[in-house]
Amino acid sequence: MVIAVLALTFGQVMADLQLPDYMAQIVNKGIVRQNNSLIFNTGFRMLLISLLGGACAVGVGFLASRVATGVSMNVREKVFAKVESFSLREFDKFSTASLIIRSTNDIQQLQMVLIMLLRMVLMAPLMGVGAVFKAYALAPSMTWIIALAITVMVGMMIVLFAIAMPRFKLLQQLVDKLNLVTRQNLTGLRVIRAFNAEKHEEANFEKANVELTGVNLFVNRLMVIMQPMMMLIFNLTAVAVIWVGSHMIDTGNLMIGDMIAFMQYAMQVIMSFLFISFIFIMVPRASVSAQRVAEVIDTEPLIKDPQNPIAFPVDTRGLIKFDDVTFSYPGADSPVLQNISFTAGPGETTAFVGSTGSGKSTLINLIPRFYDVTGGRVLVNGIDIRNVTQEDLCEKIGYVPQKGALFSGTVSSNIKYGVPDASDEEMHAAAKIAQASEFVENLEDKFATPIAQGGTNVSGGQKQRLAIARALIKKPEIYIFDDSFSALDFKTDAALREALNDETRKATVLIVAQRIGTIMNADKIIVLDGGKIVGTGRHKELIESCDVYKEIASSQLSEEELEGILGEELA
Amino acid sequence: MSDRNAAPPQKPGGPGPFGGSGPRPGGRGPFGGHGPMMQGGEKAKNFKGTMSNLITYMRPFWVSIIIVLVFAIASTVFTIVSPRILGNITNQVVNDYTNRALYDQITSKLPKGVTLPPGTTGAELLKQAPPAMLKKIPANKLATIKALDFSKRPGINFQKIADIALLLIVLYLLSTLFSYIQGWIMSGVSQKITYRFRRDISEKINRMPLKYFDTKTHGEVLSRVTNDVETVSQTLNQSMTQIVTSITMIVGILGMMFSISWLLTLVTLVILPFSFGFIGAVVKRSQKHFRNQQATLGKLNGHVEEMYSGHNVMKVFNGEKRSIEKFQTINRGLYESAWKSQFLSGLMFPIMNFIGNLGFVGVSVVGGWLAIRGSINIGDIQAFIQYVRQFNQPISQTANVANILQSTAAAAERVFEFLGEEEEIPQAEQPVEIKSVKGAVEFDNVVFGYNPEKTIIKGFTASIQPGQRIAIVGPTGAGKTTMVNLLMRFYDVNQGSIKIDGIDIRDMRRSGVRKMFGMVLQDTWLFNGTIKENIAYSNPEATDEEILAAAKAAHVDRFVHSLPNGYDMVLNEEADNVSQGEKQLLTIARALLANPPMLILDEATSSVDTRTEVLIQKAMETLMEGRTSFVIAHRLSTIRDADLILVMDNGNIVEQGTHNELLSANGFYASLYNSQFTVPAVV
C-alpha cells in the first residue's frame, strides 16, 4: 500500500514537473520558430501527461483515504478493546472523560492528519526537490531568487506562528472559560434568580466575553496578514524572475520559454515549502493525539485472568470470605482498607455502614475484582478470586451500582443485559420484585420503551429499580447493592426490601447504605471507620456497643425513634 | 505555464489557521475536512427572514462594512490588472529579443566587413536585398524589419522594463496593503458582531422564564453561545468579502480576457460547464457519505461514552464481548462511509487541477497558433494563462458562498430563535414593596400546571402564620419542587393567588419576592470563585465580620480552616475540591448571610457522611429560627415537629395537616409513614 502510494505520488509529481518544460518547448520551438504542428503535438502530449498526473492524484487520494480510515479503524478498535479490558484502576488513572476523548476525538484527529500526510508529506518534498532541480537546470544563476522567496516566506510563517501559537492556546482557554461561565449561569439559574444576582452573572460573562473577543481579534488580525503576504511573495518572485531573466536573455544565456518555465518551477518550489511548513504546524498537534492514544494501547490492565484458571467447586454457593484484606490506591500514603476479615454466607444479609471515605464502597468493589487487594485475599466459595476467570466470577454476582447506569436500548434490553436469552416471564418477574412493574406499565411502550443514552429519560429512582431488576434476573449467588436504594422514597424502599427478601433468601447479600433504616434489620452489620472494622453485629448490639454506629444512627433517627420504634416495635 | 502558477495560493483545505481566524472550538485543525462546500450541512428554515434579521443586526457597522467592500474591490482590481502588466514586460522582452534575432539573421547575410552608417533602417537595407530573400520574409515581419535600425545591434530595453516592473511592484504593494486593511477592519466587525451576539444571549438567559431551561438541556443553550455564534461570525467574515471579491474578480477577469482575445476567452468558457458538472456530481455523492459518516460517528461516540461510563456494570455482567462486537459493527460502518467521503472530497483537487490543465493546454495550443499568425503576443498568452488560473477560484468560491450562506443562515436562525424566545411576563406596573416582611403566606385556591393542558395542582388553599414551619413530603417525583417554583415566582400560578403578608406576589417585583426567601436546595450551586465570594454571593455588600459570623453559624468556619488558603481557597470548576456536605454547609452560610424573613429548604443530604450531616442539621436549625420555613422534609423529626405538613403526590397536594391529624385521618400520609417504620422485614 505504502509503495503504491509512493509510486503514484511519484507519478503525480513527475507529471506536474513535466508540464512547464513542454510549455517552454511550445514557446521556444513552436511560437518562435513558427511551428504549428509542434504546438499541437506538444499540447496533446501535455494533455496526456496532465491526465496521467490527475489519475495518479486520484489514485493517491483513493489509497490515502482507505489507508488512513483503515488505520484509524484498527486503532480505534484496539483502543476500545483495550479499554474494555481495563480495571477500575486504569479508569482512575486516565479518568473516564479522558478515555472517551482518546477513543473518539484523538483518533479522529489522527485520521485527518494521516490523510493529509499521505497526500502531502511525500508530494511536497518530491515536488520541491524536483522543481529545484528543474529550475537549476534551466538557469542556475537565477535559483537565488527561489532561495530568497522561500526564506522570506518561511521567515514570515515562523514569526506569525511564534506570535500566534501561544495565543491559540490562550484562545482555547478563554473559550473554555466562557463556556464555564455560561454553564454555571445555566446550572445555577434558580440560585442566581433567588439571590437576584443576574447582574453579577452578566458582569462575569461580560468579562470573559471581552477577554475572548480581544484575543480573538488580535489573532485574527495577525493571521489575515498571511494571505496578502503570500500573494506579494509570489508576485515579487515573478517580477524578479522576469527582471533577471531578461538580462540573461539579453546575453543569450536563456530562452524566453525557459524563463516562463523557470517562473513556474519557482512557484512550485514555493508552494511545496508552503505545504511543508503546514506539515510542521500540523504534526506537533497530531503527535499529541498520537501520544495520548498510544498511552492507552500501551497500558496493560493490572487485573488479568490467571494463566491456569481453576473452576469454582459446585458444592458451595455464594460463600464470601475476606482474609486479612488490605487495599491502598496507588500512590496513596495510607491504605483505604486495613486488615479486613469477615465471612458472608448464603441466606445472610451483610450490611456495611460508615461515613464517607470509610472504605465501604471500596470494600465491595474488591469482590467483582474492580480492584485487586494489595494484601490478604478475597475468597469466593473457598477459592481466591485471582485464581478464577473474571467471567466465571462475575457470573456469580448480581451487582447494583449506586447510580443505576442504564444503557441505551429498551427497558427490556436493560433488564436482560446480563442474561440476553432470558424469557419475558423472567423479565416481568424481576421487574415486579424490583418495584418497576408499575411505572414500566405506565410507559407508552411498556417494556419496549426506549431508554436514552445514560438512561436520561427515566428518573433516578426508576433507574435504580431497573438496575435492581437487571441484577435479579441473573438469579446470582451473590448480590451486591452499592447504596442502591438512595434515590427511592421511603415507601418504595420498604416495599422493595420486603419483596427482595423472598427472592434473596438463598443468596448472599451485601449492602452498602447511607440510611440506617435500610440496613437496620440485616443479619450482620459491619461498621467501618477509616478503613478498619470497628464493629460487627446486629443493629441492637451495635447501638449499645459501637460508638461510631451510634453516632451515625442518632444523626438519622431521633432519640424517640431509636428507643421507641426501633427498640420496642422491632424487638 | 503549468498548474499552480502565479495564481494566489489557494487554501488547500477547509478552514485552517490560514482561513484567518484561528482554531475553531469545533476542532477542525488546519486542512481539516474539506470546507463547507463538502459539508452541505443544514439549511435554515427561513433563509430570507434570517438574512434580513442578520442585516439588521449588522446595521451599526455599515460604515466599516462599506469601507471593507471598497478596499476589497480596490485590492481585487489591482490583482486583476497586474498579470496584464506583467505580460507587457514579457512582450517587451520578446519584442526586443525577436528584433535582435532579425538583426542577427539579416546582418549575417551581409558581406563581411561592411559597416552601416548610423540611422540605416531595414527599409533601406531591403532595397538592396535579393528578391529570393525578400520572399522568405513573412509579411508580418516585414514592417518590423523596415522600421529597425541596423546601424547597431539592438539590445533589450531595460529602462522600459524597469519602469513597468516598478509600476508593478507599486501595484502589488498597494494591493497587499488594501487587502490587509480590508482583513483588519473585517476582523474587527466580525468580532464585534460575535461579541454582541454573545452578550445578547447572556442577557437574554436572565430574562427568560425557567420553563424554557427546564425543557432544554444546557448543552443546547451552550452550543448557541459558542458554536452557533462562532459559525455566524466566521462564515460572515468569509462570505461577505468573498462575494464581493469573487464577483469583482469574475467580471474583471472576463473583461481582461476579452480584451486580450475573444477566441481564447471562448475556449476558456467552453470548459466551464465541465468543471461545474464534475464538481456538482462529486459534491452530491460525497455529501451522502458525509452524512452517513457523521451519523455513524455519533453512534460510535455514543457507544464509547456509554460503555466507558458504565464500565463496572459492563464488566460485572460479562458484557465485554458483546460491547466489543457492537463496537466493531459500528466501526466497520464508519470505515465504509469515512473512506468514501474522504476519497470523494479528495477528488475535488485533482479534478479541478485537471480541468485547469485542460484550459491551460487549450489556451497554449490556440494561443500558440494565434501567436504564429501574429495576432497575439507571448506576453498576452502568459497573462491570459494567469487569468484562466485565477478564474477558477472565484467561480468555485461563488458556488461555495451559497453553501456558506446556508450554514450562516442556519446558525444565525438558531441564535435569533433563541433571542426571540418568549420572555418572562413583565413586572407589575407599580410594584408593591413590603417594608418589613412578617412572613405570612397565603395560598388561595392555587391552580397550576407546567403545561396549561395538564393541571397538577388542582385548587390548593392554605394559610401560614409568620414563623411557622411547613414540611412538604411525598414520594420521589411527587412534584415537591413545584412549591419552590411557585413561591419563588420561577413560575406563576395559573389561577388563584399566593399572597405574602396579604399582597399577591404577582403585584411585586420578581426580585422583591425572591429577596424575601432564603433558599437551600439539595442541588448545591457554587461557582468557580473563592469560598468567601461564594458565601457573599447573597449579599455582595456584606462586611468580612458578617461573612465570618454567617460561616461560623453554618459550621463552615471549622472546615475552612483545614483547607489550603482558608476562605480564599478557590472552588474549582466542578466545585469538587470540597465535599458534598461542605458544599451544603456553604449554601446554608450563603442563605444566612442574606438574612431573609422566609426560607425554602431541602433537607435531603445524599452522599453526605453522617458527621457532616449532623452539622448540616444543626446549621439548618439555626437558619430556620424565627423564620417562616418551607422544608422539603426527609427526616421524620422535622415532619413531626412541623406546624403544617403538605403531602404531595403526582404533583398535587393531596393532604395537609399536622402529623397527628394526618395519622388519624389514615390516608396517604399514614400509609407513607407506616411503610417506613413498621415493615418488619428488611433485606
From TrEMBL, chain A:
Residues 3-285 form the ABC transmembrane type-1 domain. GO terms for molecular function: ABC-type oligopeptide transporter activity; ATP binding; ATP hydrolysis activity. The chain crosses the membrane at residues 39-64, 112-136, 142-164, 229-249, 261-283. It is a multi-pass membrane protein. One of its GO terms (cellular component) is plasma membrane. Its main location: membrane. Residues 320-555 form the ABC transporter domain. Gene3D superfamilies: ABC transporter type 1, transmembrane domain (1.20.1560.10), P-loop containing nucleotide triphosphate hydrolases (3.40.50.300). Keywords: ATP-binding, Cell membrane, Membrane, Nucleotide-binding, Transmembrane, Transmembrane helix, Transport. Pfam families: ABC_membrane (PF00664), ABC_tran (PF00005). It is found in: Cell membrane. This is Multidrug ABC transporter ATP-binding protein. The lineage of its organism: Bacteria, Bacillati, Actinomycetota, Candidatus Aquicultoria, Candidatus Aquicultorales.
